[in-house]
Amino acid sequence: MRTLIFATNNENKVAEVRSVLDDSFTVISLKEAGIDIDIPEPHDTLEENAREKSTVIHGLTGKNCFSEDTGLEVFALNGEPGVKSARYAGNLAGSAENISKLLTNMQGIEERAARFRTVISLILDDHEYQFEGICEGRITEEASGKEGFGYDRVFIPTGADKPFAEMDMAGKNIYSHRKKAMAKFIQFLKEYDGENQD
Ligand code: IMP
């Protein structure tokens, strides 16, 4: 079975990706690959940051790998925090600070539409391919729930009545941006392997 390095240090992302895998490939995290590196996200788009991460790991290992970059885009904030989602409240900020800043900036705003957007960058046989997944929803008035990570405590996907952080993994996967991007990725690999079989 094909093995791909997932260029992330975020164990939550590794768990979510593994939860949607079928038998098309297995995933090795950076930690499992013995790589200890903080990969920069210096660009203004998710696409470029995702490419940066996969390119750095491909450069280090020469192996097939993939990465992803995700942003929370809030309509009333002109798409912010977007590509800056991880550092919204500052370079050292964690999720609690980021959520707090978001809720403060949304105070008194009735239009709460938002979306998560994930871009996966795959480097396979020295070529890069990208896959996008979008989850529409809205920002809550206050944080709730204990599951998930990041902004999950303040985001209710369209069609649900509770935030991601009140769902288990299977529940989040019904709506998730990451799951949608992964579905395209998995489909692509199946077709790629079909076409490249002797
Ligand atoms: P990055 O893709 O690791 O740069 O993540 C950007 C920011 O969005 C970080 O603050 C993450 O915690 C957050 N984030 C990424 N994916 C999700 C998600 O699925 N749910 C909630 N927050 C997320």
Structure explained in plain terms:
The radius of gyration is 17 Å and the shape is globular. Strands 1, 2, 3, 4, 5, 6 and 7 form a 7-stranded mixed sheet that branches. The chain has one domain: Alpha-Beta Complex (Maf protein). With 198 residues, the chain is an alpha/beta fold. Helices cover 31% and strands 25% of the residues. The longest helix is centred in the C-terminal third of the chain and has 19 residues, at 177-195. The protein is built from 5 helices and 7 strands. The two termini are 16 Å apart. It binds inosinic acid. Inosinic acid binds next to strand 3 and helix 3.
Key terms for this structure?
5 helices, binds inosinic acid, seven-stranded mixed beta sheet, Maf protein, 31% helix, 7 strands
